[in-house]
Design goal:
Blueprint (H helix, E strand, L loop, with lengths): L1 H17 L4 H13 L5 H14 L4 H14 L3 H14 L4 H14 L11 H17 L4 H11 L8 E7 L4 E10 L8 E5 L2 E3 L13 E7 L11 E8 L4 E8 L4 E5 L14 H20 L4 H14 L5 H14 L4 H23 L3 E3 L19 E3 L20 E3 L19 E3 L22 E3 L11 H8 L4 E3 L2
Parallel strand pairs: 9-10, 10-11, 11-12, 12-13, 13-14
Antiparallel strand pairs: 1-2, 1-8, 2-5, 3-4, 3-6, 6-7
Helix pairs in contact: 1-2, 2-4, 3-4, 5-6, 6-8, 7-8, 7-9, 8-10, 9-10, 10-11, 11-12
Length: 481
């Protein structure tokens, strides 16, 4: 058997010399090595090293090497040294950089951030990768690795906010990550005044797919108006993430929510040492950008560094760099517009928290998408006028307290797919691109809508638009002309 397998391995090696990227050949080699009585793993590692010398981006060979490393129980430290050699030989080795991102969390795990290496290791890696992109600023490999270094571990889902409404007889739970609540499971448990309450959970859009918010209807017994208060406690998952909310007598609603800043939702709190290193990185990247003014990777990294250091302090400068980056990389302008929009929404949420406000003004910011809407559950007035929005996402239904929504001067053509907003009373959508009354059909399911402004839309030119809208929304005052 040993001789037979050895012959097969020799044959496969000759095949790989002809076609080193033959998936079938590498896969069959795995099978042979699993069945050979006395495998020579050291030779297989040498074989991989030779093929990677010929083509360092041979992904099939990298996959095979990982298979060999696992079977031979090669130390992660030895593999890290292997990547050192490859990167030193050629900084433009994306596979080696990626392999480092897999090895470092295993060798130097951060107890506070599972899946990430310790800060001391990250700071050393930042120095290494800086040498790489100063050596070849136009190679994307090192820039991608630098972006990973600036990132952070994906946290487990936790409860951000619990909101209870006496008026709607409902309770809403907002999460930090999309979750699934299986009917009849114990994933999400609700206790009312210390007694377990059996409820049916649903998402605001009614699709019951992985979502950032889940709702339930409360029975009348859980909202007795004569009691001085009701306490609702929500438990999530095996990690026992929980949050408690109190509804007092005479109050229409109550809530309990996490601090965006304290929970580091959008950025990690920086140590003095890391802040100093990132500040130095920022200055170095600005120097490089002065030499390479149209280097898109450098421009994007400057933006990400400023976000990591202080998104509010650097907001105006960040927007200026976005304009420069769009001019240097017009093919990705749509992606950059969406990324810019996300950052602006995050900044507004931070300001809203600092001011303890329930009114958010995002007007005239050039927004192309809406995100982090789970953070706006308590907002009562949202101004989105003067942006570049083409549609409203179904996730807008997470704004359970929203009473006034301003959408003037966008590019919205239809409201199809928008779930009902239970508290919305006033909607202004002037100067958009709405052409037919049927494009507003979802508004018929908005129970409290009493004022709708539609001036400056193409549908205003239709002779029967006013009467059709009146039939669609008999309880609302409609300003069309």
């Amino acid at each position: 058997m040993q001789s037979l397998c050895h012959g097969e391995l020799s044959f496969l090696e000759s095949c790989l010399r002809v076609n080193p990227k033959s998936y079938g050949t590498w896969h069959h080699r795995c099978w042979v090595m699993e069945h050979v009585p006395d495998p020579d793993w050291a030779r297989e590692l040498e074989l991989c090293a030779k093929f990677l010398e010929i083509d360092e981006r041979n992904f099939h060979c990298w996959d095979y090497r990982r298979f060999v490393v696992q079977r031979a129980q090669v130390l992660a430290a030895d593999e890290l040294h292997f990547t050192d050699r490859l990167i030193t030989r050629n900084f433009s080795n994306y596979s080696s950089w990626h392999y480092r991102s897999c090895l470092l969390p295993r060798l130097h795990p951060d107890s506070q951030q599972p899946g990430r290496p310790t800060e001391a290791v990250l700071l050393k890696e930042l120095e290494l990768v800086q040498n790489a992109f100063f050596t070849d600023p136009n190679d994307q490999s090192a820039w991608f690795y630098h972006r990973w270094l600036l990132g952070r571990a994906e946290p487990e889902p936790t409860i951000l906010c619990v909101y209870v409404s006496r008026e709607d007889s409902s309770l809403a739970v907002a999460f930090s990550q999309p979750v699934v609540v299986t009917p009849g499971s114990c994933d999400l448990l609700l206790f009312a005044d210390e007694a377990p309450l059996a409820v049916n959970w649903r998402t605001p859009d009614g699709r019951n797919r992985p979502g950032l918010m889940w709702l339930c209807d409360l029975p009348a017994s859980a909202l007795n108006e004569h009691w001085p208060q009701h306490t609702f406690r929500v438990h999530w998952g095996s990690e026992q993430s929980q949050k408690e909310c109190v509804l007092f007598k005479g109050r229409s609603d109550g809530w309990c929510r996490d601090s965006v800043t304290e929970e580091q939702v959008f950025r990690c709190e920086l140590s003095v040492e890391k802040s100093t290193v990132l500040q130095s990185e920022l200055e170095s990247c600005k120097e490089l950008q002065a030499l390479e003014p149209e280097n898109k990777w450098c421009l994007l990294t400057i933006i990400l560094l400023m976000r990591a250091l202080d998104p509010l302090v650097y907001e105006r400068e960040t927007l200026s760099y976005f304009d420069t980056l769009k001019a240097a990389d017009p093919m990705r302008s749509a992606y950059l517009d969406d990324l810019r929009s996300r950052f602006l929404v995050e900044n507004s949420i931070l300001r809203m928290e600092y001011a303890e406000a329930r009114v958010v003004d995002l007007s005239c910011r050039g927004l192309t998408v809406l995100c982090h809407l789970e953070q706006l559950l308590l907002v009562t007035h949202l101004n989105l006028a003067g942006n570049r929005l083409r549609r409203l996402p179904p996730a807008l239904a997470m704004l359970r307290c929203l009473e006034v929504l301003e959408l003037d001067g966008n590019q919205i053509e239809t409201l199809e797919g928008l779930p009902p907003l239970p508290r919305l009373e006033e909607l202004s959508a002037c100067s958009n691109r709405i052409q037919r009354p049927s494009d507003l059909r979802p508004l018929a399911s908005f129970p409290k809508l009493r004022l709708l402004a539609l001036r400056g839309n193409p549908l205003g030119d239709l002779p029967d638009a006013q009467s059709e809208l009146a039939a669609l929304l008999p309880r609302a005052e409609i300003a069309l002309a």
